[in-house]
Amino acid sequence: MGLALDIDIITIFPGMLTGYLGESMMKRASEAGLVRFSYIDLRDFTTDVHRTTDDRPYGGGPGMIMKPEPIFKAVESVRREGSRIILMTPQGAPFRQQTAVALAAETHLVFICGHYEGVDERVREFLVTDEISIGDYVLTNGALASAVVIDAVVRLLPGVLGAGEEATEQESFRRPLLEFPQYTRPADYNGMQVPEILLSGNHPAIARWREEQSMKRTSERRPDMLAP
Ligand code: ADE
Fold it and tell me: How far is it, in rounded angstroms, from Cα 109 to Cα 97?
């Protein structure tokens, strides 16, 4: 399996990404050549001695706004035909498993990690192809949010999960139900028992039990997933 996906991350805090993406499955995926991560320091695209990436908002008000020029230049330094240019922002479309599936089918993703109060609107209007939010809360910047999206996308690439790949197929969100409860040994841990049915060896009955548990859990915890 060759390189499936090329990911460029534009940030003023590359260390926030190298930490997460340099461990565990993400590290293995890149070492195996299934994905390539590149970190682009936005400050390398500034022109002043202070390497300024933000400025005060036109019209006044609190907070600072990320300047357009360094972001445009950074993106233009890596962009090619078909690149998805993704801005991480709480104003974006909610991130879902189906978004991860769609992004895993691409060849080049460029993540722009916002910081401060916001990003000059021209970046949104004329540069980005997608705006993504990881949830209805506000982080101090988009680096962590992009790591969340990258993790969910990269684990879907062929070969990343290896032998357990089949497991993804059964997982939550492929089917619109939550996962059933899972157990491993011991069958009795300090009096806490594994459900009898799972020890029965009756596979059709186990499959039915799991289906019921998934349905029960979904209706209790996420009735919104069952709503029409
Ligand atoms: N940047 C700050 N908060 C964010 C969020 N919830 N999703 C994506 N990017 C963000």
Answer: 17
